[in-house]
Each structure stands twice: as C-alpha cells, then as structure tokens.
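JOB MANIFEST
job_type = single_chain_structure
chain_count = 1
residues = 516
[input]
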Amino acid sequence: MATVNAVPKTLMQRFLDGVEKVGNMVPHPVIIFLILIAIVIVLSAALGAFGTAVTFERINPETHEIEQASVAIRNLLNGDGIRFMYESLVPNFMAFTAVGLMIAAMIGAGVAEESGLVTALIHKLVAVSPHWALTYILAFVGITASIAADAGYLVLIPLAGIAYLAVGRHPLAGLALGFAGVAAAFTINWLIKPLDTVLVEFTNDAAHLVDPNRSIGLASNLWFSIASVLFLTVIIAFISDRIIEPRLGAYNPEKASEGTTTDQGAMLSEQESRGLRFAGFGLLGLIAVFCLLTIPEWAPLRSPTTGELIGNSPFMNALITLIVLLFLVTGWAYGIGAGTLRTLTEVIGAIEKSIKNMGGTIFLFFVLSQFVAYFTYTNMGTVMALSLSGVLQAANIGALPLLIGFIIVVAIIDLLLTGAIAKWAIFAPVFVPLLMKLGVEPEAVMAAYRVGDSPMNAITPLNAYFALVVGFAQKYDKSAGVGTIVSLMLPYVVLILVLWTVLFAIWQALGLPWGL
C-alpha cells in the first residue's frame, strides 16, 4: 500500500498547538480561579499598604453629572475586607447574572433539545443552505445575537457546534465560530439594542463638558455598525474556513464525552417534518401574543414613560424572556408533532435533565463570582485603567494615532474589566472631551470604544461564559481544556482587532458618516 504523507503543519498551526498544549497543562478552572483569588487578596494587601490611588473625572450613572472621584486600592486583609469576604459569599453568587441567565435559557433550550427541535432545525438549515454558506450564516447570526444580550452565548454557540457536526465538519470549529461571532463583535449590530442607549447617554454627558449643545442619537454609530457586521462576518468566516478548521482536521467521534450524540444525519424524517410544522404553528401563536404586547400604543412592553419599543423598553431590556418562551413553546409544539414530548410531565422531565447537567458549571460560576466580586472590591482594575488612560493622554500625538492608541488601551483593559458599560463610564469623560478638542466627533470616539471593547471577550477567562464554552468543547473532545479554547480563539482575536482597527482608521481618515 502506498503511504500518504501528512501535510506539514504551518508555523502558525505549530504555534497554536503549543498554546493549546501549554494551556491544557493548567489545573481545573476552579483551581485556577482559587489561585487568582489568593493573588488578588495578597496584591490588595500590598498595594493598599502603599496607599495606591488615582483621581479622575467620571459620569455619575444616576445623575449623569460629571464629578471628581478618587479611587484607592482596597485591602481585602484588613477588617473591612475580611468582613466583606465573609458576608458576601452568597450575595456574590446571587448577583452573578450569568447564573440566572444560564438557568433561565436552559429551561427553554432543554425542552427544544430534548424534543429534537434543535436537531431538526439544524437538519433543515443544512438542507436549504449551500455548503459554503453555512459558515457565513452562522457568523452573521452570531453577531446579530447580541441583540438578545448574553443569550447568544447560551444558544448560538452550542447550535453552531451541532450544525458543523451535522455536515461532517469538526464541531469544535463550529463552537469557535459561534463564540467569535457572539463575543468578539458584541458591541455592534445592524439593529439598535439596549446597550446603545447607555453608551450614547454616557457619550452625551461627556460631550457636554466641551459643548453643552452637542448631543448624538441612538443611531449615531449605525452606518459603522452595519458595515462592521458585514465586514466581521466575512473575517470570522474566513478565519474559520482557512485557519481553524484546517488545523483541527477531521473529527474523531471517539474523543466525545460519554453520552454525547455524534451521529447527526442531515436528512429530515417524516416525524421531524411534522414536528417542524407544529413548531411553526407554536411560533405563529407566540408572535401573535407578542404583537399584542408590543405593537399597540398601550402595549405593556413599551416604555411606560416614552412609549418607545426599541431602546430602553421592557421588551428590549428582557429579551431573554422572549428567548426562553420561544424555545419552550416551539420545543413543546415540536415534541407534540413528532411524538417525542407529549405531556407536561415529559416537558418538566426535559427541563430537569438539562439543569442537572449544569451542576459542574454552576459550581464553577460560584467560585468565579467570588473572584469577580473580590477583584471589583479592590478597585485594581479601575486603577489600572485610569493609569493607562493617563499615559495615553500625556502622549501628545495626533487625533488618529490617539484613537488607535485608545482602541489598544480598551482592548488591554477588557482582559480584566469585561463590562462594556462600566469601562465606558470611566473612559467617556476622559477621551470624549480630549478628542473633541482635537476636532474628533464624539461618534468617532464611541465607535473606537466599540472596536476595542469586543475582540478580547473571546479570550479572557474573566468572561463569565468562557468556562461555559470549555464545557461545550468537552462534550466533543473530553480532553479539551482552557488551552484548547485559547488556541482556537487566538487567531480570531488578533485578526479581528487588527483588521477592524484598520477599517476604523480608514473610515475616520475618509470622513465617512458614523450613523444617523
């Protein structure tokens, strides 16, 4: 028999293999965060002893007034710190919104998965989509998923893995594609979303420091956001097809964890087709109900003060409820049609099964919530952010280089402070007035913030859903770990940050309109 020579790996592939190997040598994520908690405690004591502090201007989130503030490192080993750690153990966990979102989403997703709806939808998607288009469709849907806040992490990422598996492609490549779409482009969308309301409000407060009559609207970044969605769809799909999937090679189902289904045929059975029709009827019924709740002027899901539906309204602020009901109603309707879930007892059983499978993740979130709370309490992330912004302010460079430097600073800080709103409350009163004095529009500063704030979400372990993605990966490869995800996401992070910054720089240099 002739021997087929393996295609030699490229330098990048060998580098990523090394990253994965080293990364997977680290301990269990719970142990990692316990070590990080210890480091934070020790550092807070050391920095607190030296009286480390910074003074800055910030936007008060309640009054929206600019105020002087001073932030000092808080010691976790003094009396106040010890009392905080002792008293906040349970409150820290209860305030960790990722837990509630995950459990709520799994109520609906568990029914949809157990009934077979998810598999049938993937089969349908595969049947109607050209093979080459699947990657682009999933990338676009992943970016758009940010309209539903964090629900995209819980729904789109595992679906992307199943979709790839259904067409005989490596499911880890699908997971990476979904994670990149949801996380690395989180701050932009082709639709107006709740996050835009807060970012614009803080931007206007900061702009009024220079010009009290200068204000921007909700759609002030719309054109750049739409262009970014299309641009990043192509970039993410290109990285997936040309870098990630070739490195992974063919998928070996024997690597899957016990109980994971790896046989995903792409043909719809008669029962599946009937189930999809019933799911369609359920969807139409749900749409009719929500039309009554949103379209009329008196609709209860409109803003009770302004009457708006898109923006700061009950409908937009709690889209996770719609996501839960969407999967719950269509999943049960599919189950009735396909004969997989007929009774309410069976539906409850499906929900219980999905939540039982999250035991390890919930414990990890418990430890992670303590780390996030301790790190926030110490103010170390805020002090670092302000120190870096001070260095950038003093650099005395031109407007465009300053904007690019601002993007880099935001990206670095996003490794430690992942909340888009919290960082913008700090950065807006510093950089919006500074750059306005250099002739830069506040819309441009906010667009630069969107570019810097997104890509690192796909690689920082402080992203509340990073550990969840590790869990998704272990379903298809039981040896997968933190290093696996880091090595998969590193090409996305680097190329998205670089190429998106280039797009921003070209947009700014050409003087193109940022939005309406």
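[summary]
The first strand starts at residue 53 and ends at 59.
The chain is about 65% helix and 5% strand.
exit_status = 0
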